[in-house]
Amino acid sequence: MKMTKPEIEAYFYEFIKYELEKVLTQLERDPNKSLWYKFWDKKSAFIYSYLLDDEFLFNLTLTSSLESKLGNALNNAIIRFILKEEIASSLGWMSFDELKQTLTEINVGIRVEEGKNLSFVLNIPGQEPSVDLSKISRADLDEYISELISLNDYTDESKDYKIDLILGCHREGVTYINLFELKAGGNLDSKKGPGDLTKLIKPYVLLQRQISMLGYHNKFSISFFFATLYDSRTGSVGSYLSREKILIGYEFWNALSQGMLSYEDIQNIYKKAASNVKFQMKIEELKKLTLQGASYMDCFDKTGKPIDKLRRKYKAQTGQSYKKADHFEFLRWFLNDQRRSLF
């Protein structure tokens, strides 16, 4: 049964909420990249500390920490969203199992891999194409890709290729496979653009070679797109790709949801999730703990770890050995007036 818009919105809300909660956990508990330890790295570097006070240093740390984490959170929510079979079916996309079965027809494997962030992985046979975009203009790109496809250096050996998002559907007897590189926002960076485009071109070329070799030109259609998750400029990628291959903000969300969810719907869902996980309130608490803790410089070594005397006292009073992942719990204990007076 096709899901209603409110049902689909409710699922996306839960996925966003889950990912934002993960971000907060990482900011507090990542052993090496928590806000405390990243803040302390900047505080210990004179190029920052001689220019900025602790509050500015924390804000700088927070901004740099959130830049990639929030992008990954949104990417992950999208993948969890489209992997939900009922949602994919309701939006007209193949389920993951159906996509997996379909790709076996061209001897291609697919899986979802979870590392720092979720991604699709295609396992494709054939010699990896050598792609050099340094001298290629937008006008020449299609011809250049066609030449790469025609080389068809086939080998039985296969290789994995990570793709941010893969969407497939059947229409009028043709299977459409769409590969996406997702950007969480900002300008499509001039330095990373060509490299990100190369990451898409390689699997695209190999998929086209498979289709050509098997004579499936009328059965499969492969496309690739760059997409930003909120409104942005096309950046340097626009010098390589035609405009129809670049989906900006609302264009991407419209394509993903087949017109069911508007860009405004997505923003409202995100805003609601951020409010309900109390994102800003929890960041403010971590900021308060960090700035208060940093005022006791002599209580921490050059890496930001509590000195031995404090770690021993912490274990004696709490029964817990100090761990970097628990540093904010330590600060809550340490900054309690009664506990601090003991030091």
Q: Kindly name the structural category.
A: alpha/beta
Overall body shape: elongated
By DSSP, the count of extended strands is: 7
**Which residues sit in consecutive blocks of at least 5 with pLDDT less than 50?**
none
Radius of gyration: 24 Å
Q: What is the count of structural domains? A: 3
Largest sheet: 4 strands, mixed
Trace the largest sheet across and list its strands: 4-5-6-7
How large is the share of residues in beta strands?
A: 5-15%
Compute the average pLDDT. Answer: 90
Oligomer: single chain
Give helix % range.
40-55%
Q: Distance between the terminal alpha carbons, to the nearest Å?
A: 64 Å
Number of helices: 14
What letter string, H or E per element, gives the SSE order? HHHHHHEEHEEEHEEHHHHHH
Describe the model.
The structure is a single chain. The protein is α/β, with parallel strands linked by helices. It has three domains: 1-84 and 260-295, no CATH class; 93-257, no CATH class; 304-343, no CATH class. Helices cover 53% and strands 14% of the residues. The chain is built from 14 helices and seven strands. The strands form two sheets. It has a four-stranded mixed beta sheet with strand order 4-5-6-7, sandwiched between helices. β1 (109-114) and β2 (118-125) form a beta hairpin. α1 (5-29) packs antiparallel against α4. The protein starts with a helix and ends with a helix. The mean pLDDT is 90.
Can you tag this structure with a few keywords?
343 residues, 3 domains, alpha/beta, three-stranded antiparallel beta sheet, 14 helices
Brief overview, please?
This protein is α/β, with parallel strands linked by helices. It contains 14 helices and seven strands. Helix 1 packs antiparallel against helix 4 and helix 2 (35-43) runs antiparallel to helix 4.
